[in-house]
Amino acid sequence: MKKLLSAACCTVIILCISCVPHADGKSEIAVNSEKTLSLHVVNWNVQTFFDATTDGTEYSEYKSTKSNWGRNAYMARLERLCDVIKKLNADVYVFEEIENEGIMYDIANTLAGNAWNRKNWCYACFAKIPGDALGCAVLSRYELGAMATHALDIRVHGKQPSMRPVIEVAVFVDGKPLTIFVNHWKSKLGGEVETEIWRDWQESVMAGKIRNLNNRAAITCGDFNRDIAEFAPGLENDAILFRGAHFGKTHEQTLRSPWLWNSMHDSYSYYYEGSGERIDHFFVSGAAEILSFSAEVHGAWADGNGMPLRYVMYTGKGYSDHLPISAIIAY
Predict the structure, then answer these.
(1) Mapping DSSP to helix (H, G, I), strand (E, B) and coil, where does residue 26 land?
(2) Lower CB count within 10 Å: N or C terminus of the chain?
(3) d(CA 180, CA 95)
(4) Of 264, 261, 278, 281, whose CA–CA distance to 220 is shortest?
(5) Tens digits of per-residue pLDDT, 90-100?
(6) Residue 87 CA from chain centroid, whole number
(7) What stretches of the chain adopt beta strand conformation (E)?
(8) 5 forms bridges with which residues in the sheet?
């Protein structure tokens, strides 16, 4: 068994595991010769990925006596997820809606075939608020380090809803770090207008963290529950602004999004009531650049029209209600 590194930040659990050709349809831009390293990163909201053990925090349908959920269903879904990981063959995977760190062990060991190989995905981290059902995770071929989590405690808008913390972690390629921020922002459940204030606060947290990097290379990714068109536009065609509040002052941080490339205007990562949305994102800042990007539609997780095949617990079929999004990052 490989080394396990764990740390705690406030009430957030953090765990780091040391265990264990691009698809068609990608859009590309010219390579900046000043960037010496590149990394293939996939972000995917894997939709309520629970294990087979009942802890009490699971969604009700997974605890029902009429449910078909159990060990066999979990193992089938785990194998299906690992098949996607191997097919996309990215260097780093960022996941939203993972239940616990034990699932990350299961993923890493399944991919490794219980045998050590440097080409396997040998590093992972996970975080969630204790008592919450789901958290976020990172799986990587390269060493991870410098982990931290960032959570909100806002008391001026009434009771704050449960919101997942931001994971900040560095991935090291040839000793050179790239900072990754993992986000899963407040959903629009309860009303788009009513919940927007919480997404604004989560945006403010990210604006502050990016500002503190002082132009170091970073990617900010995840499920933001906000379409790219709902962000404040920047001055350049592919730029948006994260707006931050800090002790009575405001500031804006410019990030770049591949969703704003002309070639991506008809692509989506999520569909709701038949309407496509671009709520899963890669944003780059500082000395980082996106060389290629796509919503991954060529695989068993999508139908012939490129729409995600959501997981249906009662039938055991499907993958997720989101598509994986894929990017090559140079830094």
Answers:
(1) coil
(2) N
(3) 12
(4) 281
(5) 999 999 999 99
(6) 18
(7) 4-9, 12-18, 27-28, 38-49, 92-98, 123-128, 135-140, 143-150, 166-173, 176-184, 218-223, 232-233, 239-246, 249-256, 270-272, 275-277, 280-285, 289-295, 325-330
(8) 16
Alpha helices in 160-307 (DSSP H): 192-212
pTM (two decimals): 0.90
Closest listed residue to residue 41, CA positions, set 214, 294, 223, 272: 294
Q: What is d(CA 192, CA 198) in angstroms, rounded to the nearest whole number?
A: 10
**pLDDT tens-place string over residues 130-159:** 999 999 999 999 999 999 999 988 888 888
Q: What is the CA radius of gyration of the chain?
A: 19
Q: Which of 88, 43, 85, 32 is nearest to 217 (CA)?
A: 32
pLDDT attached to residue 295: 98
CB neighbour list of residue 98: distance below 8 Å, 6 or more residues apart? 46, 49, 104, 126, 134, 135, 136, 137
The full DSSP string for 169-209 is EEEEETTEEEEEEEEEPPPSTT-HHHHHHHHHHHHHHHHHH
